[in-house]
Amino acid sequence: MKKLMQNLFLLSSILFFMLPESASALPSFTRQTGKSCTVCHIQNTPKLNGYGRNFSLSGYANYNSNSETQSLIEGAEVTLGMPSVLNVSAVLKARYVKTTNSLDINGSYDLGTERGELQVLEGSGLYFAGRIADNIGGIISIIGDPSTENDVALGGKAILSYPTFNGFGGISLYSTQINGTFSGMENFNTGLNAPLKQFENAYVTNAAQATGIANGPATGLQLYYGDNNLFATLGVTIPSQNNEGIDAGGALIPFGRVSYNMSVSDWNFMLGAYGLAGDVKASDQSLDGGLIDGAAKLINIYKEGYGFDFEATGSILDMQTMTTINVVLKNIIDVTPISSLTSTNLQQTNNRATSVEFQINPILPLGVKVAYLNYNNKDETAVTREFVKAYDFNAYSFGLNYLVRQNITLDAEYSYIEPDEQTLIENYYDFYLVATLAF
Fold first, then answer.
1. Which of 92, 146, 164, 359 fits a 20 to 30 Å CA distance from 334?
2. Contacts 24+ apart (CB under 8 A), 408-413
3. Measured between alpha carbons, how far is 272 from 287 in angstroms, rounded to an integer?
4. For residue 46, is the peptide bond before it cis, meaning its omega torsion is within 30 degrees of 0?
5. Element (H, E) at 314
């Protein structure tokens, strides 16, 4: 069975490792289904409601009517329906970022973001998304990399899904540069899938993003089942998009996720758990997506992490609310030999975090949100990476989200960060101003 899974994963990786990034809240889905964005999304995009989760579980293959597909192959027993038009979307994102923490990831001064920096291409992208054929759908995209690793981030996923019991069961094959291990099929808004979160500045507001357990490069294959109550998935992943220099047979990290969702009156509650553990044998150069040369060194990477999350949605005095909690109990990355690790995508890590996020909409288009994050770094040898901090801190955040139209959103966020006194880093703040247009 293990040999079969390894061979299937290797074949799948060859076919799909060049597929681009996953995304949410795309106008191509509205053209496909004939429904508005607010049918699938709650409060503001890309956060998903129950209908949106079911649409994702179907592999984005549901249509408003059969007339919107055309037959690709017809026969007595085999028919394949494909879209009559190609679903293409573009998302343009511009953001202004300012921080009073002037130290960059190398401990030197980064005057750009301290003075304020306008970022136009980061997060903008071109997407091909939706139904491919009967029971098959997916997303392909090319986006501006919000990190400093690359100019663009390529990734995506292909999903084979069938109606099963009271929901959908299927297989998701995915490759991502930034969205992490669980992004192949994860539809709750607790940050396990990087786009599905409450704050744009997730690295000081969301535990899964702050620790790094749910972001970064990953290529994976997972089986899943989901309905209105239960969601469960098991899969294997490689922490890279570049499989050159990786022994796939010795580098498949198992991971799992289970959640239970229930409705009480007009409230909806979800409680879930997640985890991963395994070893990777890889070239130190492959982890950053570069080509392998004679200077490459073989390293062993052990990853272990687990936690639980909670989501509640409902109305208070006719005002729509969402509360999300994520607790990363353990997140370890152990590298041997540590002296050979030169990757900027991976570092020696031992951290944990707890986050609580809340949004309320006093009026339908306006969201007011707050967040608290407690982050604990337990590895004193770790160094600060671009997003993962190497020091303990508490962060308090406040934000506003305004839905100008269903495809235009504005966000303003302020986060006050209090590092542990032993770090000798002064308290500082981050300010984000973001405009997003999708068409």
1. 146
2. 408/435, 408/436, 408/437, 408/438, 409/44, 409/45, 409/434, 409/435, 409/436, 410/434, 410/435, 410/436, 411/200, 411/435, 411/436, 413/199, 413/200, 413/201
3. 30
4. yes
5. strand 298-316
Distance, C-alpha 12 to centroid of its chain = 21
Strand ranges for 318-390 from DSSP E = 319-336, 349-363, 366-377
What pLDDT, in 10s, does the model give residues 222-250? 999 999 999 999 999 988 776 666 665 66
- CA distances 80 to 131, 158, 378, Å, are 11, 16, 53
Predicted local distance difference test score (pLDDT) of residue 133: 81
For the chain, give the number of residues.
439
Cα(321)–Cα(44) distance, rounded to whole angstroms? 11
* Cβ-based neighbours of 271, under 8 Å, separated by 6 or more: 259, 260, 308, 309, 310
The low-confidence residues of the chain, meaning pLDDT below 50, are 1-24, 65-68, 70-72, 104-112
pLDDT reported for residue 15: 36
Distance CA 39, CA 82 (A): 23
3-state secondary structure of 331: strand
Q: What pTM, to 2 d.p., does this model score?
A: 0.86
The predicted structure's pLDDT at residue 127: 86
CA gyration radius for the chain? Answer: 21
Q: Which two tokens stand for residue 260?
A: 């239970």
How do residues 25-39 score in pLDDT, each as one tens digit?
Answer: 566 676 666 677 777
With H, G, I as helix, E, B as strand and everything else as coil, classify residue 244. coil
Which amino acid, 239?
P
CA 96: distance to chain centroid?
Answer: 22
